[in-house]
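Page 47, continued from p. 46.
Same chain as before, 342 aa.
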Amino acid sequence: MRHVAIGDPQAPLDTFLRILDGHGLLGDDGRLEDDVHLVSMGDHFDYGTPEQRDRATADGEAILSWLASHPPERVTILIGNHDVARVCELFPFDDATFLAAHREARELYAAEAPAEAFLAKYPTVPDAECLARDYSCFSTAQRALVTDLLRSRRLQLAAHHRGVLLVHAGVTEDDLSLANIRASDAAAASDGLNAWLDVRLSEWTGGPLALAPLHQVGSPSTGEGRGVLYHRPCDPSTQPANRLVGPPRRRFDPRRLPAAFPQAIGHIRDNKCRELMPAWSPPGAPIDGPLRSLTVTGAAVTYEVGCRADARLFFTDAGMSHAPPEQYELFDLDARAPLSRP
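Result:
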């Protein structure tokens, strides 16, 4: 089997399939080849401009449905913050109420107007920007799909392959301790995280899905979401202190990542990595398309383009809706390197 991870598929369906086909992963029938196991790194919804909203809404559902139409031994689907938002922050909405709230949020966000009345009306979202930009492509059909895939255990919190932990946004020693997970290797961490999610799903009888303390949803009172589906690595000296308070956190110091095993994550593109870790980043402008990695040696942290053999983090979100498809790299989990094209 060829084991491959694909970064956040927040892009048109045809772009997603073109990337897979360009790497020789699709058969003549448009399905994955029989020798391929694909891991989707989470975040299957929300991309593009307001003018693309209708298409993006349909594409997100289509991509996730296409992935789930393959058996579990062929496709592993990780959950990201955009996926879980469908059953958390966006749980109270139906199609009509969401569209009304989205229009109102766009007007407020564009005008940089006060949003107190908006937040009183929609108390499950942290601010107008959240609906105007971040979670802009919601539908009740998406929520039904995410619900079904969670309850059937097709959406997972973690996976592992050959000693690499695969999670949407990374887990620190503090996160594992918070969930009472003792993990000396990637398999134990993955099993512990998925067992933790199973308990939460077994307790989910109605209403929004509760994933505290590992995941804190955004709200007017708590601000933007925090935790293992939201947080991003940073140089702590560049960030307001409150973003590192936790766990759950909005930002984390990568020196708090477990040293016993590397992780592959999605969730963060090159431009945001350079913004949050400027002193640890290489010179030059941000670029979409390539994989990147982060190494930790004592107190020293290095972020760079490419896949270092000694990396503690591999970054797979290469901006699928921004990079030319022929330049978008996939992660070869067997080689811990960009997947070679045929």
